[in-house]
Hints:
Oligomer: single chain
Largest sheet: 3 strands, antiparallel
Strand content: 25-35%
Order of helices and strands: EEEEEEEEEH
Structural class: mainly beta
Strand order of the largest sheet: 4-7-9
Radius of gyration: 15 Å
Distance between the termini: 21 Å
Mean pLDDT: 77
Number of strands: 9
Number of domains: 1
Amino acid sequence: xxxxxxxxxxxxxxxxTTASAQDVIVYNFGSHPVVNPLTKLALQLILPRPVSxxxxxxxxxxxxxxxxxxFSSPQSTLMSDSAAAPRSYPLLPRSxxxxxxxxxxxxxxxxxxxxxxxxxxxxx
Length: 124
């Protein structure tokens, strides 16, 4: 198993605070202690990328377990393919192991704090 980061941006016009829909207000959370306190709240993500777990047919015994913690609404599309059928996209993963690189290089330092929070429970 691993993490699959799609090089695109999720657009959810019904759950955005801007006319350009560059943000997504997230209301759909998985069931995990990290996001349980957020179930009655909302989380705003700026230019969110779809990030999901990646299955492997023969994972090694020490393969990380990746859980999806937050999801866009079912009305979401991708910025580069707005004609595709709308669907929900996973936006925040969590791994039980420390990953070598947890964010795309182009995401930069502003995105790194979020990944550090999400993956910090794997190192404690």
